[in-house]
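A protein record in our archive is deliberately plain, so that people and models can read it alike. The tokens are whole numbers drawn from a learned vocabulary of local backbone shapes. For reference, a complete record is included directly beneath this paragraph.
>
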Amino acid sequence: MKKIEAIIRKTKFDDVKEALIAADIEWFSYSEVRGVGQDREERIYRGVIYDTSSIERFLLSIVVREINVEKAVQAIIKAAHTGEIGDGRIFIYPAEDAISIRSGKRGDVTLFNA
């Protein structure tokens, strides 16, 4: 199992959610986050200057079986990509175990309803 953390633009969340569902990723959690990056670019919109380092973002946390890692990553990349500074990052970590609180089952069988 792997844990995928993706930091994406808030405006791209619905696109990424739909792409993950289409890729058969059944479950993930998310939260609103803010961060500071090295890239800085100012944009002017209706006379107001915006700093792209402070774009609102979501942090997605997804645990998948090994066979679904690349499928999930590609779904995120396709849906979150704008080509502009601040598109986000994806991090992949090993996940040692998963335990269903309800059933007590362990391992990757806890990642999908069967």
About this structure: The helical segments are 13-22, 69-80.
